[in-house]
Amino acid sequence: MHIAVVGTGYVGLVTGACFAEFGVFVTCVDKDHEKIMKLKKGIIPFFEPGLEDIVKRNLKEKRLKFTTRIDEAVNEALVIFIAVGTPPRGDGSANLEYVEEVAKEIAKNMKNYKVIVTKSTVPVGTGFMIKEIIKKNLEKPIPFDIVSNPEFLREGSAIEDFMRPNRVVIGAESEQAIAIMKDLYRPLYLLETPFVITDIVTSELIKYATNSFLATKISFINEISALCEAVGADVNTVAKAMGLDGRIGPKFLHAGIGFGGSCLPKDTMALVKIAEEKGVELGIIKAAIEANKRQRERLIRKIINAFDNNIEGKTIGILGLSFKPNTDDIRESPAIYIIQNLLDKKALIKVYDPAAMENVKKIFPDIIYCSDPYSVSENADALVLVTEWNQFRNLDIEKIKNNMKDNLFFDFRNVYEPEKMKRLGFRYFGVGRN
Ligand code: UDX
Ligand code: UDX
Fold this sequence. Notes:
By secondary structure, this protein is α/β, with parallel strands linked by helices. The protein is built from 18 helices and 14 strands.
């Protein structure tokens, strides 16, 4: 089978590479020439464990190719995935300009039956919108089907998530399209991955409902963390005991500085917007968005309060810049908010991250970039652990302490043991566990 994937961003590239690994012939299309030139040489524009190997191997075996020519890709493919960005507009709704553009291009170049699949997270109703656009732009009547096939990839473990998903969701209107999609996913079908086959609108909603629920779970435990601090309870133990209840489960119950990334913040806002347009109140999700912002602000205030509101000229070291470990993605990363806030109050900022420093340099060219966590700690008044990279879990804490000018440690992912840190002479600030 031949397929095309339009958009070689995070989602498109992982999807294209993994289908090629399944033995499918894949053409990845992007309008960005420079990106395509690099991809042809196996150069990946972002950091994702395992992806480069898969891309290089499948390029070599000629199952994967890259082009800027959407016409050629459409011609060869039976299934065309749309995986272009759907960035948020100012009001929180998703910008579908790119999706519309691609749908028109597909229509103009179609000569026979195609299955057109949305992989990008698109608002409920987009499938039908694409159908209309394609109908309108076809030169003569050609049969086609629209499918919604949302992705649930997590950055940092995207390959594993694609190869061993919890489920595959397919929303379609015709038996033929469902059969083709099942055929495409046959390797997963054989692994007994659960398939949820439904209509297009339901499938579109599943993605938003899933991400919004995950966001709500995080905000729930973050609000509880504030209460823990007020009453002297320990949020890690509360979360652990809650998670042992099989109806709740332990995942996504880690209190911290709040959720970031390219999906949770954007998808929660977009779902609220979709509901508003339909006159439906989604109070819980709105509250989860608000709680996320409050948690971030509350923890930033913790740093400033610890310096009696006078942080001017203090040296603050930041450990971790990406929105979570194992990625160089800094979209909606709490670290960016922290740095901006502290710079506004005239603090000096030193940072280290194993992967995301190049991206942050574009936003903050003038802060100090260090080569490892120990140089961040040199002469620092305070350290703030923002992203729980593995290499920050086992730091030589005594060495860190000796390097520092003052002794404040803000552990915004609850990586270290409060008692031990205090014994070592730190003024330690965790989340919901003092
Ligand atoms: C995007 C969305 O942000 C996310 O909500 C959705 O679930 C999946 O798609 P991502 O893959 O990270 O995620 O997007 P982005 O990094 O913006 O990549 C989009 C790519 O499509 C870019 O390389 C862009 O050049 C390309 N593109 C965009 C086209 O090829 N044609 C277009 O018309 C528009
Ligand atoms: C998410 C979804 O998990 C994935 O299914 C979807 O396809 C895309 O969006 P991703 O954004 O890569 O994936 O990251 P995820 O692992 O979900 O983490 C999101 C954010 O929540 C991170 O900022 C993380 O630090 C935070 N988080 C997660 C917590 O604060 N506590 C937790 O317990 C879990």
